[in-house]
Design a protein that fits this description.
Layout lengths: L1 H22 L1 H30 L5 H25 L4 H22 L1
Length: 111
Amino acid sequence: MYKTLLLQGLAILAVAAVAGLLGGEVAAQSALIGGAAYLVPNLLFVLRLRCAVAARETGAVGFMIGEAVKLFAVIALLLILPRLMEVNWPALIAGLFTVLLANLFALLLKT
């Protein structure tokens, strides 16, 4: 799980660098924000899942509740962050989709 988070973080940095070259500082920050809006809740979910496994309290219901909380956190961050700062929407969406697609690449690297 931590390797997937690392891959997601590296993907965010790569997209932010490209966005910065193409669109400037605001685009780079927007790509970082878009990726972080998914990466941070994902990191918290992984840490919670690790604690549950260590305490032997794992279960499907707990997993589904954790996923639901993660998705609501992502939506909340995507609604709040553009109100706090100027964003470049294409770069923000690119950062978000890059993190989402990094999960698929992590699965491909495992097989």
